[in-house]
Design brief:
338 residues, 10 strands, alpha/beta, Rossmann fold, 11 helices, ten-stranded mixed β-sheet
């Protein structure tokens, strides 16, 4: 039996250090690296673009320019272009390009990656950040509400990762970020579509982390808690002030840096608090001969329920399926000898 255990650390504020005369950092930099950021016209994506550009990355700013529900907003300003202008005003030497394709279609995802390769010759970093909301209670949720949220979050991240995969495999280098949510980890009323997609992204990230090892491609998941138009009607104003999306960007940037070797991890950022999640399994109970008497098999599960569900000093954390299998075989071997 598994549950999610939350580990955390608090990071204290520190002054801005190591800035060049142009305002760019001379610390951990991304010179020569090309980053694609989806949904980068606002909120979290904008902050990622600003931070990576300030540290020398070539940045592809992708934004569909739609509203929060995913509908195209032709009257709105081109959000990607606005972010590009903002970056160039601060750091005129920045190397940028914009793209307004939807990540929810194979053709759109392919064009986003082609934009990066045609402009900069490579793609090193993919931050899957694009997202929409169509909140409804489960009983009132339409198939379209479900399909559209899945299409942008889960399918969109799959399509973008797939489009980048061949390039990253060939160059033997790649950093991929998935964006999950506490709604996926814990559930949230009215967000069955969103929650399912966000938990699915953790599974996708886990497998890409495993398959990417041979080609030096790493994949991690972030769980950001930040004030944005996605949370504008959810977070109280006093809480929103503490959850500036700018606080999430340093964590994402570190996970994208060549010195960070982390892969297959799930990390949360909320305000100036950062933590890591992991799966943990109870020690459990071995029930020999459970099906020898079907008149008692369900009752034996019921009678053993407290022990099956108990987390104690013997509970285990398995970071990989191989570790999980080793623990399971050891448990079966030890208990069968009793």
């Amino acid at each position: 039996m598994r549950t999610i255990i939350h580990q955390f650390v608090k990071l204290s504020r520190s002054p801005r250090r190591g800035l060049t005369t142009s305002g760019q950092s001379n610390g951990l930099r991304f010179d020569g690296r090309t980053a694609i950021i989806t949904g980068a016209g606002r909120g979290l994506g904008r902050e990622y673009a600003l931070l990576l550009a300030s540290r020398g990355a070539n940045v592809v700013i992708n934004d569909f320019n739609g509203d929060r529900s995913g509908m195209s907003d032709d009257k709105a300003l081109n959000a990607a272009e606005e972010v590009a202008k903002e970056i160039l005003n601060k750091w005129p030497e920045s190397k940028l390009t914009t793209n307004c394709e939807s990540v929810a279609s194979p053709d759109g995802a392919s064009k986003v990656v082609s934009t990066a390769v045609d402009k900069f010759g490579r793609v090193d970093i993919l931050i899957n950040n694009a997202g929409i909301l169509r909140d409804r209670s489960f009983g009132k949720m339409s198939n379209e509400d479900w399909d559209q949220v899945q299409a942008v979050h889960l399918r969109g991240s799959y399509l973008m990762s797939k489009a980048c995969w061949a390039h990253m495999s060939k160059q033997k280098y790649g950093k991929i970020i998935m964006t999950s949510s506490t709604s996926g980890l814990f559930g949230n009323f009215g967000q069955a579509n969103y929650s399912a997609a966000k938990m699915g992204l953790i599974g996708l990230s886990n497998t890409l982390a495993v398959e990417g090892q041979r080609n030096n491609i790493v994949c991690n998941t972030v769980v950001p808690m930040a004030a944005s138009r996605m949370t504008s009607d959810i977070l109280p104003e006093d809480v929103a002030k503490k959850l500036d999306p700018a606080y999430v960007a340093p964590l994402v940037a570190w996970l994208c840096h060549e010195k960070c070797l982390e892969t297959g991890g799930v990390f949360e950022a909320a305000g100036q608090w950062y933590g890591k999640y992991r799966l943990q399994r109870s020690h459990g109970k071995f029930l020999p001969g459970l099906r020898d008497n079907d008149n008692e098999c369900v009752e034996r599960i019921a009678d053993s329920w407290d022990k099956i569900s108990e987390f104690d000093a013997n509970s285990t954390h398995a970071g990989t399926f191989h570790e999980h299998l080793q623990y399971l075989l050891k448990a079966l071997e030890n208990d069968s000898e009793k």
